[in-house]
Here is the input.
Amino acid sequence: MSKDQREDMTASEMAMRKFLKQLGVTAHQELADALAKAVADGKIAAGAEVAVTARVEIADLQFTHDVTANLVAPE
Here is the structure.
């Protein structure tokens, strides 16, 4: 994203982008660590599919959004 594009963004858009970036980075790290540990501990097999659900909640708005998917445990 160019400097001009960033300067044209509203405070609301910037806050949303920062939140989503933090969510993605931290969730990725935590999920990768949890899956690797589960494989190392023998709780799941390498390459196994694992169902995951993520929930974003805004209590003040009584808003929730769930995203579900299947992850694959590392080899």
Notes: The longest strand covers residues 49-58.
